[in-house]
Amino acid sequence: MDIKGKVVIVTGASSGIGEATAREFGREGAKVVIAARRVDKLQSLAQEINSMGTGAETLVVQADLSKLEDIQMLVSQTIEKLGRIDILVNNAGFGRLDWLENLDPIKDIQAQIDVNVMGVIQTTRQVLPVMMKQRAGSIINMCSMAGLVGTPTYTIYAASKHAVHGFSEALRREVKPWGIDVSLVYPGGVVTEFSQHAGIKRKTNASTPKFMLLTAEQVAQAVVKLVRRPRRMWVIPWLWSVTVFMNKFIPGFVDYTTITRFTIPEREDELKIK
Ligand SMILES: NC(=O)c1ccc[n+]([C@@H]2O[C@H](COP(=O)([O-])OP(=O)(O)OC[C@H]3O[C@@H](n4cnc5c(N)ncnc54)[C@H](OP(=O)(O)O)[C@@H]3O)[C@@H](O)[C@H]2O)c1
């Protein structure tokens, strides 16, 4: 697909992967609709993209992806101003990473489900009739390794990304006859603002090894590649596929190593209290 002049919606474009993705589409000369809550960040990104000299255009839409009315407004403004939607990147999302009983039922649990799951479903649901009418479109959903492998402290985040995985798989099989592709990308750790919002507290200092960390730009480049060559699933970096394979075929081993190397050392003090 030639991306120049195509209308692309990128949700969660005010930072990290979404911001880098909007920039990549800008470099390709697309008409990029950038949505998130922090409108000041979107406006400076729009200025940067507009001055790239690639013919790219931008439309800034302030939207809270947990609100249906904001999603409806995002799609209606796009149609009103740009007339069509060729590509949708469902990227907005966040994680709150703590033991389940420590998570706030509303601010941490409900909020993650509202943005990471309902936001993706409702945005896709609003965009779909437009793409079906066009008989063409590309939907790229930002999943995560947490959408394939559940890790302690990631309960709700993993639930939300597993939901994105299942939703996208079913949708792909629904919409292909209309010329619509649904692709999924599963990044491991990416250096963004994500960890600042996640509230991670670790005694073991367990984290993604540095050589496995991705930049937002690497994920953004993968997203653009998925428009040109849709894929059912793309795990990046590929080395994480080993973990996915082990989790599927030797889950007992993954349970054992995770519990003995992470859960018990992290919760040692609590386990001693009777
Ligand atoms: N970083 C990682 O290690 C990693 C790994 C795998 C997958 N991912 C996924 O990648 C996506 C982007 O995350 P990131 O790493 O780029 O983190 P980030 O820098 O924190 O970006 C998150 C984006 O989501 C937006 N967002 C959050 N809540 C929103 C809401 N209610 N309404 C609208 N927009 C909202 C934020 O915008 P506002 O705050 O301005 O609204 C921001 O633009 C997420 O879906 C995340 O789950 C991240």
Class from helix and strand fractions: alpha/beta
Mean pLDDT: 96
Q: Give the termini separation.
A: 61 Å
Tally of separate domains:
1
- CATH homologous superfamily classification: NAD(P)-binding Rossmann-like Domain
Helix content: 40-55%
Number of strands: 9
The helix/strand order is EHEHEHEHEHEEHEHEHH
Strand percentage lies at 15-25%
Do you know the CATH architecture?
Answer: 3-Layer(aba) Sandwich
Order of strands across the main sheet: 3-2-1-4-5-6-9
| Hetero compounds | NADP nicotinamide-adenine-dinucleotide phosphate
Can you give a write-up of this model?
- The radius of gyration is 19 Å and the shape is globular.
- The protein has nine helices and nine strands.
- It has a single domain, classed as NAD(P)-binding Rossmann-like Domain (Rossmann fold).
- Helix content is 51%, strand content 15%.
- By secondary structure, the protein is α/β, with parallel strands linked by helices.
- α1 packs across α7.
- The strands form two sheets. The chain has a seven-stranded parallel beta sheet, sandwiched between helices.
- α1 links the parallel β1 and β2.
- The site of NADP nicotinamide-adenine-dinucleotide phosphate has 30 residues, from α1 and α6.
